[in-house]
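note to self: dont lose this again. the chain is below, predicted strucutre after it. 182 aa total, dont forget to put it in the shared folder this time
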Amino acid sequence: MTTRIGLLALALVPALVAAQTPPTPTPLPTPPGVNPPAAAVARSVIPVDRVVAIVGDQPVLWTQVLTAINQRRAQGMTLPADSAGQAALARSILSELVDEEILVQKAKELKLEASESEIATAVDRQIRNVRSQFQSEEQYRTELRNAGMGSPRNTGAHCSSSSGSRISSKRHSESCGSSQSR
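---
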């Protein structure tokens, strides 16, 4: 009887061990034109946004840099053809984003807040400026959708949040400039 129990326990050991081992993922087929080692790396890496700078306690994300580059491209800027030029552009925009965040934080510290009417006026002006770059309303709406902003209403909401910060930081810059000139 004990021999049977011992044999049964030995038979169950592989099943118990297998239950404790996580399953190995089934490899996905390799896309055409991609080397299998590169495909394996691509499958094992999950794309996540990354922090490229920290200003005070606020991170500046790589997607913010890319968004700023894309906004400038939409305004007519052409990207440098070489990778060194593209890296220099990204560093320049990152520097501008860091400077802007420093101003925003200082404006908050000094309680230099923009009013709702100032924000609304700035947003309306910015939307009119962008809209004037398109020949038709349909072309404007298509570009908004392509940029991931949906409708003009969504764009206004996006601009409101960034414009409030910009107005506050501009006030801080102006107050610093006026106090320094005295």
